[in-house]
Amino acid sequence: MTAESSSDNHTSDTLVLQKYALLIEYDGREFKGWQKQTNPPVRSIEEELEQAVSFIANEPVKLICAGRTDAGVHAMNQVVHFETTAIRPKRAWMLGINSNLPNDCAVKDIISVNEEFHARFSAISRTYRYQIFNHPFRSPLKRFYALWNYHPLDVTAMEKGAQYLVGEHDFSAFRSSECQANTPFRNVHYIRFTQKEHLIEIELKANAFLHNMVRNIVGTLLEVGLGKEEPQYIKDVLESLDRTKGGITAPPQGLYLYNVEYPDDVTPQFEANNATFRV
Fold first, then answer.
1. Segment 2-58, tens digit of pLDDT
2. What is the pTM of this model?
3. Would the CATH topology of 2-122 be identical to that of 125-257?
4. Among the four residues 165, 212, 220, 275, which has the most C-beta atoms within 10 Å?
């Protein structure tokens, strides 16, 4: 794969495109999501990152991410790839891109990847985490990073209900009306709960997720945790294929893109310190 260029930075008229993968982290509270939107123009992660990478590459670049996050949703390990003819040392890429990014977004690592790698289509699973602050009084420090629920939650009942969702199912009942996916079928590998003092964390791993699927699952599980419904309710909602039968769409501030997994032959060998990232 080649591109023609007359840049003074290169000695050859024929330049080879190099593919890179980025591991990034962002605080989503002031972004209108991942995707760039120009009508009207809004602040997006894609726009900020694309400008920073293009500036250091000294040429326009197009970014592809593992999964588009919505407005207010955070990411701990988003994966992005791009192609460029620019040649830079890793330190120059890292320092250059990060110095041109705002404080609520940062590149954690950058590596060269093979032509077969695709941040979205090569991924075999995604893992999200949702945090709930379960306490009678609100926490100003957690208001942008967890859902506050002041009624006691029955986590055991929520865990029992969540197991009905494990496996491959039609998740139409947990799908946003704006979802553009070709099929509502998804394979949920697991849903796990951890609780430390007043913070409840729900971790969901699947081959892929539908639009708002995680937030709709959490909102429906809350109905069980609050004692409004029995665990069987989750099964009934799933089988109904009807979004109106489920609970609310949980707010975005509690949601984090935690991990993306790739097959061994295209797995990015990121050096970033993350014990659970597939390296």
1. 444 444 444 445 688 999 999 999 999 999 999 998 878 899 999 999 999 999 999
2. 0.90
3. yes
4. 220
